[in-house]
Specification:
globular, 8-stranded mixed beta sheet, Aminopeptidase, 2 domains
C-alpha cells in the first residue's frame, strides 16, 4: 500500500500512543508474553516524551490522511537507537512497517551505527529487520523481581551526580566502545541514575534500573553490587532490567535472588558494533 511519511507533531501523540499500545499488546498477547506498554496511559507518557523532545527523530506513516504507524529514533549518541516502531493492526502486513524503518534508517544515515531491541518471539519484525541489514548481536531476557539480599559491603552505591558523568562516560567508552555521554546526562534530569564506587572509584553505573536505561560495570560482581544498592533506594525494591544471557553466573544469581525471566529479546545492529567487555545491561534501544 502507498503511505506518506512525515515528521511527527504534538497533535499526533494520542493516535501514536494508541497504535503503539494496541500493536505491542496484540503481539504480546498472541505469544503469551507481557507487553512493554501495559496501559494506554503509560504508552501516552512515553510517546509524549519522545515526540516533544528534540533529541529524538519521530515520524508517522499516513494513509488517506490518517496516521497508521509511527517510529522513533534516539539521536542522543553517535550510535543511533531505533524504537519503538508500531503499525495499526488494520494495516499490518502491507509494507507500512518497512516504509517506516526505511525512513528511520535514512534519518540516521550519518550515524556510525544504528541499533534496536527486538522481542525474539516476533518473527515478522525479525524478518523485516534482517532484510534491512540488521544482525542479531546480543540475546538477552527481561528480568523482574525483588532481590532477597541486602546491599553488599565494600561498595558505596549512591545517586549519580553531574560530577560523575565524565567518569561514567569513560567507563562506557572503555568497556562498550561507544560514547553515551548525552544519554548519561539526560538520565540525570529524567531518571534515577546510580553509581557503584569501590575504593573511591566508580566501577559501575546505571542510567535507570529499568528497560529505559542502560547499565555498565567492570565485572559481574560490580553489577551485582550496583543492582542491590539501587534496589535499596526503591520503596518496594521491585526492579526490572535487561540481562544478556552470556552472563550465565549473573543470570543464575538473579534467579536465586528471586527474580524471574519474563521474555526473550535481542539487540540487533547495522554498522559499527563492538561486543561489550565487562558487564552491561541494554536499554530499550541498545
Amino acid at each position: 500500500m502507498n503511505v506518506a511519511i512525515r515528521r511527527a507533531q504534538p497533535s499526533d501523540i494520542d493516535v501514536c500512543a494508541r497504535i503503539t499500545y494496541e500493536a505491542f499488546k496484540d503481539i504480546s498477547d498472541r505469544h503469551l508474553f507481557p507487553t512493554d506498554f501495559p496501559t494506554l496511559e503509560f504508552a501516552t507518557e512515553i510517546i509524549e516524551l519522545l515526540i516533544e523532545s528534540p533529541l529524538f527523530f519521530d515520524i508517522v506513516a499516513e494513509s488517506s490522511g490518517a496516521v497508521v504507524g509511527c517510529g522513533f529514533m534516539d539521536k542522543r549518541n553517535p550510535i543511533r537507537g531505533i524504537g519503538p516502531v508500531s503499525v495499526d493492526r488494520a494495516f499490518q502486513g502491507r509494507g507500512t512497517g518497512r516504509e517506516i524503518m526505511k525512513a528511520l534508517l535514512e534519518g540516521g544515515r550519518d550515524a556510525v551505527g544504528i541499533r534496536l531491541v527486538h522481542e525474539s518471539f516476533n518473527m515478522a519484525s525479525l524478518s523485516l529487520y534482517a532484510s534491512l541489514g540488521f544482525e542479531v548481536k546480543e540475546p538477552f531476557v527481561l528480568m523482574e523481581g525483588k532481590f532477597r539480599s541486602q546491599p553488599q559491603h565494600g561498595f558505596e552505591v549512591r545517586p549519580m551526580t553531574s560530577e560523575d558523568v565524565a567518569e561514567c562516560a569513560a567507563l562506557c567508552e572503555k568497556l562498550c566502545g561507544c560514547d553515551r555521554t548525552s544519554e548519561i546526562e539526560y538520565a540525570l534530569n529524567d531518571f534515577s541514575p546510580f553509581v557503584a564506587c569501590k575504593q573511591g572509584r566508580i566501577v559501575a553505573y546505571t542510567c535507570a534500573v529499568s528497560a529505559l536505561g542502560h547499565s555498565v560495570a567492570e565485572t559481574e560482581a560490580d553489577m551485582q553490587a550496583l543492582l542491590l544498592g539501587a534496589a535499596a533506594y526503591s520503596s518496594d525494591r521491585l526492579l526490572a532490567f535487561h540481562l544478556p544471557l552470556r552472563y550465565a553466573n549473573l543470570f543464575r544469581w538473579c534467579l536465586q535472588e528471586g527474580l524471574r525471566a519474563l521474555k526473550p529479546m535481542a539487540v540487533m545492529a547495522v554498522g559499527e558494533y563492538r561486543s561489550p567487555e565487562g558487564c552491561w545491561l541494554p536499554s530499550f534501544v541498545y
